[in-house]
Amino acid sequence: MIAEKLLLNVLIVLMPLMVMSFFVNDRKESQSKVILTTLLAIAAVLCMVFAFEEQGLYWDLRYVLLVLAFLYGGRRAGWIVCGVILLTRTYLGGDHIIIGYVVVVVSSTIFNLYANRYRQVNQKWKRVCFVISLVFLPTFIQLTLLTIYLQLLGDFQYQFGQVIFYIFVLMGTLIVAVGFATLLLEQMLERRRMQEEMERAVKMNAISELAASIAHEVRNPLTVVKGFLQLMQKDEKGKNNDYFSIALCEMNRAEEIISDYLNFAKPHSKNVQVMEVNQVLREIVNILTPYALKENVELKIEGSNKTTVRSDQNQFKQVLINLIKNAIEATPKNGKVNVDLEEDKTVVKITITDTGKGMSNEQLTNIGTLFYSTKDKGTGLGTMVSFRIIAEMGGTLRYESKVNVGTKVTIVLPVDSNILHNE
Ligand code: ADP
Ligand code: MG
C-alpha cells in the first residue's frame, strides 16, 4: 500500500517538471520562476493529499518539492512552497501536526542555507548527489523526532519491521524522485543556456561581420591619406612639419587598431607557413627599437636558434608587436624590456620581461578579456587577439606580474617537426 502511494507521489513530483519543459524555451526567467513555483506548490499539495496515511502520520515526498523550490526557484519560491505545505498540513489535520510543522520549517531553513552553496556546484552529477543528500536530511530529522516523540508518549504502535520497511520504501522513492527531477531540471537549464548562447553568438556574428566590413573599407582610404601625408611632409620645412608627424602617428595608430580588430573579427583568413622564430623575432625587435628609443627604454633580445613554428606570419608578428609594445608602454624611462628565446626539443619558449609598472591580481585576471584596457587611448584588443592567435597555433600565453616590479609574458609554442622545406 505504501509503495503504491509513494510511486504515485513520484509521478506527482515529476509532473510539474514535464509541464515546465513545455514552457522553458520561450519564457523569460522571471516568468518561468513563477510557473515553476506554482507547479511545485500544486504538486506539494497533491503529494500530501495522496500521501500514505497511517495513525495520523503522512508518508509522502513533499520534501522533494520543497528542496527543488529552494534550489531551482530561489528563496522566495522555497518559502512559498513551505507556506503551502504548512497550510495543507493544517487542513489535513492529524495527530502529530506539531512535528509536521517543526520538520517543514527546520528543513526549509536548512535548504535556504544551502541554496547559495548549491549554485556554486558546477558538475551535473555532483549537483544531483547534493540534492539527494540534502533531501535525506528532513526525512532523517522527521523519523528521529517521531521515534523519540512516540517513545515518550508510549504509544509506539508500529512494529519495528514495519517501520524499517516503510523507511526503506520512502528512501527508495525519494532517491528515484529527486534524482530524476534534478536531472530533468538540469537538462532543462542546460537547454536554455545553450539556446541563449546560440542567440548571442548569432547576434555577435552579425555585428562583427558588419564591423569587419566597415573596418576593411576604412583601411583603404586611410592608407591613401597616409601616403599623401608622407609625400607632403617631405616638401614641408615650416612648422607644419610637426603637424604632419602627429597626423602620421595617429594614422598609424588607427591602422593598428583596424588590423587588430580585423584579426579579432576574421581570424580565419590565414596563410599558414613554416617560419624561423628567431628571424621573425629579430625583425620585430628591429621594427620596435626606434619606438623603444623614443620612450627611453632599453630593448634587448637574447638567445638564438633555428627552431621553426607553423603559423600565419602576419598574425604571429602581430602578437609579438602587441606584447612587446605593451611591455614598452608599461615601462618608465630608463627601464628595460628583454626578449628571450629558448628551445626545448618539442617546444620553443619566448619570454618578454619588462621592468614596468606591473599588474595587480585583479588586472591579471582581466587581461585578455575583450576591451579590457587601463590606457586612455587603449583598446584592449591587443592581448585578446594575441591569446587567440597563440591558442590557434597550439601554444600557450601566460602572464606573471608584480606591481611596480614588472611583468613577464611567456609564450610557449609547439615546434614544427618538419625541417624547413624551402631551403
Ligand atoms: P591596450 O594596449 O590597447 O590597452 P592590450 O590588450 O594590449 O590593450 O592590453 C590590455 C591591458 O593590459 C593594458 O591596458 C594594460 O593595463 C595591461 N597590460 C598589458 N601588458 C602589460 C605589461 N607588460 N605590463 C603592465 N600592464 C600590461
Ligand atoms: Mg596594447
From TrEMBL:
Domain Histidine kinase residue range list: 213-417
Listed transmembrane segments: 7-24, 30-51, 63-86, 98-116, 128-151, 163-185
Subcellular location: Cell membrane
Organism: Halalkalibacter kiskunsagensis
Membrane topology: Multi-pass membrane protein
GO molecular-function terms, A-Z: ATP binding
Lineage: superkingdom: Bacteria
Protein name: histidine kinase
UniProt key word Signal: no
InterPro entries cross-referenced by the UniProt entry: HATPase_C_sf, HATPase_dom, His_kinase_dom, HisK_dim/P_dom, HisK_dim/P_sf, Sig_transdc_His_kin-like_C, Sig_transdc_His_kinase_LytS_TM
Keywords of this entry: ATP-binding, Cell membrane, Kinase, Membrane, Nucleotide-binding, Phosphoprotein, Transferase, Transmembrane, Transmembrane helix, Two-component regulatory system
Catalytic activity: ATP + protein L-histidine = ADP + protein N-phospho-L-histidine
Taxonomic placement: Bacteria, Bacillati, Bacillota, Bacilli, Bacillales
Entry EC number(s): 2.7.13.3
PANTHER family reported in the protein's UniProt record: C4-DICARBOXYLATE TRANSPORT SENSOR PROTEIN DCTB, SENSOR HISTIDINE KINASE
PROSITE patterns assigned: HIS_KIN
